[in-house]
Amino acid sequence: MSSTGSTYGDIHRYEPARESTAAAIAIVLLTIIEVVFVFLFTYGFVSGWGLTDTGNMFLGGILAVIFVDLAFILALYRKEFLPDVMIVKKRRRKWEDLYVREEDVDGVTLGDGAWEQVKRAVYPYYKR
Questions:
Q1: What is the spatial distance between Cα 75 and Cα 69, in angstroms, rounded to a whole number?
Q2: Are 69 and 36 in contact (CB under 8 A)?
Q3: Which helix (H) or strand (E) holds 106?
Q4: 84-124: per-residue pLDDT in tens?
Q5: Which of 35, 77, 87, 112 has the fewest CB atoms within 10 Å, measured from its CB?
Q6: pLDDT computed for residue 25 by the predictor
Q7: Transmembrane stretches, by residue range (predicted)?
């Protein structure tokens, strides 16, 4: 679905999410696996596996698997359960984003002579 409105904030394109059952089942299974690995990491951390070299690497591997599993859960959720929405945004020039006057875009010189080439990097902000 798309609209022809071109004013700021109008929805230009809206595609609803698929909401597939297979993705929901996959998210539930990945969440169960996530809980198992979090429990295993917590047990290993409390029981002192990190005090040995191989145990420390094992805990690091479990932590990596936890975050990779979480990334898959979030990617599936974003792809299958969030709608694709594009809104119309107002296009601005560079100095409008910085809230500076148009004549102050090049900056202000700091000194004379050798310092004449040095410009101030932070432009003077002012309220509209």
A1: 10
A2: no
A3: none
A4: 887 776 666 555 555 555 665 555 555 555 444 444 444 44
A5: 112
A6: 96
A7: 21-46, 58-77
As a whole number of angstroms, the distance between CA 62 and CA 58 comes to: 6
Tokens of 36: 């198992």
Long-range contact pairs involving 120-127 (C-beta distance under 8 Å, separation at least 24)? 123/95, 123/98, 124/100, 125/98, 125/99, 125/100, 126/99, 126/100, 126/101, 127/99
Q: How many residues does the chain have?
A: 128
CA-nearest of 33, 40, 31, 32 to 59 is: 40
Backbone φ and ψ of 51, nearest 5°? -80, -20
- How many alpha carbons lie under 13 Å from residue 36 in its C-beta half-sphere? 8
